[in-house]
Specification:
87 residues; mainly alpha; Methane Monooxygenase Hydroxylase, Chain G, domain 1
Length: 87
Amino acid sequence: MANTPQAKKRIRRNANRALVNGNRVGRIRTFVKRAEAALASGDKTAATEAMAQVQPELARGVSKGVMHKNTASRKFSRLTKRLAALA
C-alpha cells in the first residue's frame, strides 16, 4: 500500500483517469458499433453519416492517448472498405 502522500495522490489520480479513459473508449466503441450496424443494414446514406461521426471519434481517442494510432487507422480503413463495397 502507498505510504507517501505523493503515492496516495497518484492512486487517486489514476483511478479518476481510468474512469475518464474508460468512458472515452466506450464512446468510441459506441460510434464504431453504430457504423457497423449501418453497414450491415446496407443503407449507404446512413453508413456514410455514421462514418463521418466515427472518424473524428477515432482521431480524438488517438489524441487523448486511449487508442494507438495504428489501431484507429486500421479500424477506420476496414470500415471504409466495407462502405466502398456497398456501392
